[in-house]
Amino acid sequence: MKSIKLATKWGDRESPYIIVTEPLKKTIFKQLGMDPKTTEKAYIQKQDIEEILGESQLPSEFKSELIKVLGKDKISEDPWARITNSLGQSYIEMLRSRISDISNTVELVVYPQSHEDVVNVVQLANKFLIPTSTVAGATSVTLGIEPTISGMIALNLKSMDKLLQVNKDAQYITVQSGILGPQLEEQLNHQGLTLGHFPQSFEYSCLGGWVATRGAGQNSTLYGKIEDMVMGIKLVTGAGKTLTTRTAPARAVGPDINQILTGSEGSFGIITEVTLRVWKKPRKTRLAAFFFRSFEEGLHAYREILQNGYRPAVMRLSDSEETYYNILAQTLMRDPPKMPFLYRYMLKFMERRGYLIGERCMGIMSFEGDPKLVDLSLKKAKSYCKKYGGFYIGSRPAKSWHKRRYELPFIRDPLIDYGILIETFETSTTWDRIIDLYYNVRKVLKQECPILWTHGSHFYQSGANLYFTLTAPQEKDNEVEQYYRIKKRILDTFQMYGGTLSHHHGIGRAYGSWLPPEIGTEGIKLLKGIKKTLDPNGIMNPGIFDF
Ligand SMILES: Cc1cc2nc3c(=O)[nH]c(=O)nc-3n(C[C@H](O)[C@H](O)[C@H](O)COP(=O)(O)OP(=O)(O)OC[C@H]3O[C@@H](n4cnc5c(N)ncnc54)[C@H](O)[C@@H]3O)c2cc1C
After folding, report:
1. Looking at the structure, do residues 359 and 292 belong to the same domain, yes or no?
2. Using CA atoms, how far apart are residues 486 and 500, in angstroms rounded to an integer?
3. How far is the CA of 140 from the centre of ligand 1 (A)?
C-alpha cells in the first residue's frame, strides 16, 4: 500500500528519508524533555488511497468537454496525482499526511502546456462553475494549495517550463511560470546571467509560486525579493481572459498592475509567463563570518552596513540559541561526532574574549559582483561589524552554511516521525521595533517550544525580517490543536508588536483571518473588488482572499 505520508516527503520521493544521527537525536530529545528511548511512530494507514479518496465528484459532461479541448494526456484522475496536488509543506499538512486525514483533495489534475491550454481550462471551469486551484512546486507552507472545499480541480503548471526570451543587453528574460529554480538558473548561468533568487526551497519550487507568494531568496539583500525582479506578467484571469502587462524598466501609468498580481496567490488568476530582470553572473564572490556578543549588536552592525549604502548579497544573523545549535551541528552531523580542531580552538579563543556560549551570535555574509566592489564592501562591512563588537572569524563557517544551505528541511520528516512538532514562522518589521518584537515572540513561545531558533535573513535599510524555527514535543492526541494554539500565539504576537503577518511565505488559507488587522477594512474591500473583477464567479483558489 502506498503511504500518503510520502506525499509530503521533502525532496525526491524515491530516495530514502534521512537518518538523524544518534548524538543529534539524543541532544534534541534531551532539550525537548523527551524519553531517550522514543522510537519513530508507526503511522498505520488502514485504507488504500483509492478508498480514502472515493469516486470523483465532477460532472461527467465537464470531464468529456475537458478531454475534447485538451486531449486525454494532459489530464489525470490518478489518486496519487490528486493527493500530491492537494498537499503542501506546512507542518499541519505533513502531520495530516501521516494520519491519513485528508479532508479534501482535488478531483482531477490538469497539466497545461501553454497559455492557451490554461485559457481553455479556466473558461470551461467557469462554464461549469468548477473551483480551480493552481499548483506549481507544492512547497507552500501556508496551505496555499490545500483545497478547502470538495469538487475542485488543480492546474499543475510544471510542464510550462520554457525560457522563452533572453535579452542579454537589456538584462531581462521571459519565462513560463512552471519552471523549477535549478532549471531556470542553469540556463541563465550558461548565458553568463543569474536571477539571484535562491529560496531555501529553490530545488523544488517554481517561478509561478515565487511570484504568486512574493517569495524571497537567500541573496535578497542584493537582488531584492521576487517582486523587485518582476517586470511583466501574463495572466489568465479567473474569468478566462488574458491580461498582459507591458515590459518597462519603470513607468507612471497608474497603480502598478504587476505588483497587484505579484502576491495574488492564485486567487485572481493564473500567471502563465513572467518577464524578469536578470543580472550578470558575479565575477567574484567572497564569504565572511562574524561573532557578535549579542543579537542586538549584530543587528546594529547590519543596519549600519545597509544605511551606509553597502549591499552584501547574503546577510544572515542567528540569535544565540540558533548559533549554539549551528555550532553543535558541526560536531553532531559527523560520524563519530567530533569538532574539527581549528573550530574548537577558535571557540575557546572567542570565549576568552567574552563571546560566551548562550550569548554569542553568528553572522554570515556574502559579497558578489564586480571584484573591486566586492573587496571594498567586505572591508567596510568588517569595519561596521567591529564598531559593534563583531569579530571576523574568517570565511569557513559561511562556506559551510553555503554548502549545506538547502539541507535543513530534510530533517523535518524524521523529527515529525519521532513525535516532534517543527514549524517555521516569519515576519518583518522596522529597525525601531525589531528588538522588542524578537524578545516578545521568545517570551510568548519559549515555554511551549523548548527549542526556538531565530535568525534574520533579509535585511533592508529600514528594517529586517525575523525567521523563527520552533520545535516542541507533540502533545499526544492533541497534536492538531497544539499546532493551532501555537500558530495563534505567534501570529497574534507578530501583530501586537508591529511585525507583518508574513515577509515571504504569503497568506494562503492559513493566515487569512489575521489579514483584516494587517490591511484594514478598506484594504480588504479593495482586494475583494479586484477579486470580483478578475474572478467574477469566485472559482480561483477558493479560501484565499475570499473573506
Ligand atoms: C523547506 C522550505 C523552505 C522554504 N524556503 C523559502 C524561502 O527561502 N523563501 C521563500 O520565499 N519561500 C520559502 N518557502 C515557501 C515556498 O517554497 C514558497 O512559498 C514558494 O514560493 C512556493 O512555490 P511553489 O512553486 O512551491 O508554489 P506552490 O506551493 O505550488 O503554490 C504556492 C501558491 O502560489 C499559487 N501559485 C503557484 N503558481 C501559480 C501561478 N503560476 N499563478 C498563480 N498562482 C500560482 C498557488 O495556488 C499557491 O497559492 C519554503 C518552503 C519550504 C517547505
Report:
1. yes
2. 17
3. 4
- Residue 510 Cα to ligand 1 midpoint, Å, equals 14
Residue 335 has pLDDT above 70, yes or no: no
Q: How far is the CA of 210 from the centre of ligand 1 (A)?
A: 5
Distance CA 192, CA 402 (A): 21
Contacts by 189-193, CB closer than 8 A, 24 or more apart: 189/281, 191/166, 192/168, 192/280, 192/281, 193/166, 193/168, 193/278, 193/279, 193/280, 193/281
Instruction: Read off φ and ψ for residue 473, nearest 5 degrees.
Output: -65, 140
Omega of the bond prior to 336 within 30 degrees of 0, cis? yes
For residue 64, what are the contacts with CB-CB under 8 A and spacing of at least 6? none
Judge whether 50 and 77 are in contact, CB under 8 Å. Answer: no
Q: How many CB atoms lie within 10 A of CB 461?
A: 12
Alpha carbon distance 305, 378 (integer Å):
10
* Smallest CA separation from ligand 1 atom 9, residue: 199
Q: Of 280, 306, 321, at which residue does a domain stop? A: 280
* 426: in domain: no
Q: What is the pTM of this model?
A: 0.97
Question: What CATH number does the domain containing 375 carry?
Answer: 3.30.70.3450
Closest alpha carbon to 150 in 107, 102, 119 = 107
CB atoms within 10 A of CB 44: 9
CA atoms of 460 and 429, how far apart (whole Å): 10
Mutate which of 92, 132, 134, 220 for ligand 1? The one with the most ligand atoms within 8 Å of its CB, which is 134
Ligand 1 neighbours by CB, cut-off 6 Å: 88-89, 133-141, 144-145, 157, 177, 199-201, 205-206, 208-210, 212-213, 215-216, 265-266, 270-271, 409, 504-506, 508, 541
Domain closes at, from 229, 252, 280: 280
Q: Which of 452, 469, 459 is nearest to 430 (CA)?
A: 459
Please identify which residue in the block is written with the cell numbers 516569519: 426
28, 471 Cβ separation under 8 angstroms: yes
Domain that holds residue 382: 284-405
**Helix and strand totals (H; E) in the chain:** 20, 18
Q: How far apart are CA 140 and CA 467, in angstroms?
A: 16
pLDDT digits 0-9 by tens, 207-249: 999 999 999 999 999 999 999 999 999 999 999 999 999 999 9
Residue 139 Cα to ligand 1 midpoint, Å, equals 5
Rounded distance, CA 421 to CA 414, Å?
11
Domain count of the chain?
3
Whether 507 is covered by a domain: the verdict is no
- Please state, as a whole number, how many other Cβ atoms lie within 10 Å of the Cβ of residue 478: 10
Please, which residues bridge with residue 455 across strands? 318, 467
pLDDT (tens digit per residue) in 358-410: 999 999 999 999 999 999 999 999 999 999 999 999 999 999 999 999 999 99
Asked whether 509 and 516 are in contact (CB, 8 A), the reply is no
Q: Identify whether residues 139 and 164 lie together within a single domain.
A: no
